[in-house]
Amino acid sequence: LHFDDTVESGPDAPLAQPIEAGGVRIGNRFCILPMEGWDGTPSGEPSELTRRRWRNFGLSGAKLIWGGEAVAVRHDGRANPNQLLLTKSNQRSIGSLRDDLLKAHRETFGSNADGDLYVGLQITHSGRFARPDVWNQSAPLAACQHPILDKRFPNGVRVLADDELDQLIEDYIAAAKLAAECGYQFVDAKACHGYLGHELLGATTRPGKYGGTRENRFRF
């Protein structure tokens, strides 16, 4: 790969240029990617440390906030007991993170600076890697049996039934609607690192409408 000898900076630099995709204009090429937070409250609301991080997202100057961090759609899908949770009771506090980010961005870059800022939220269920109640106590809800991964859980792994996945889809939809009401411009359904959405994509041994064929594995 060819690399420039120096990284250009300033308003004419390549990374400072806007980009348009799908009818959306984003003010530059810098992006904040979603990580997994460990500093929310036990009820899934942001702490002051969480708020500080989101204010820093706004201060950074990045114009695409790709989720900020992974937010569980229900309690049993939390990857740790301090992960954020998006429910009706938590909606206002999750929405206030976006407000904090926008305020910091405007104060730093101008009152109209958020016109080309695009802020979304990543929503997730951690599946077999869920630890919703105690940080070192697994409570796995798997997409399928796995001869290697199942060995990590001496107490066994419960595979979610089709009707439970039907309900979980509704939980994702409900969380997406809550995010939209908060002003988030998109949601990203997390499907990586072996979490539930990712595991379903590879659930070739699962019977029923969510496993086996490619069509079934993508149904969720």
Explain this structure.
- The chain has 220 residues and is α/β, with parallel strands linked by helices.
- 29% of the residues lie in helices and 13% in strands.
- The chain has helices at 48-60, 91-109, 162-182, 196-201, 214-217, and strands at residues 19-21, 24-26, 31-32, 64-65, 70-72, 118-124, 141-142, 158-159, 186-189.
- Strands 3, 4, 5, 6 and 9 form a 5-stranded parallel β-sheet that branches.
- The radius of gyration is 19 Å and the shape is globular.
- The model has no long low-confidence stretch (mean pLDDT 96).
Unreliably modeled segments: none
Secondary structure: number of strands: 9
Q: Give the helix level as a range of percent.
A: 25-40%
| Structural class category | alpha/beta
Roughly how many Å is the radius of gyration?
Answer: 19 Å
Please tag this protein with its features:
220 residues; alpha/beta; five-stranded parallel β-sheet; 9 strands; 29% helix; globular
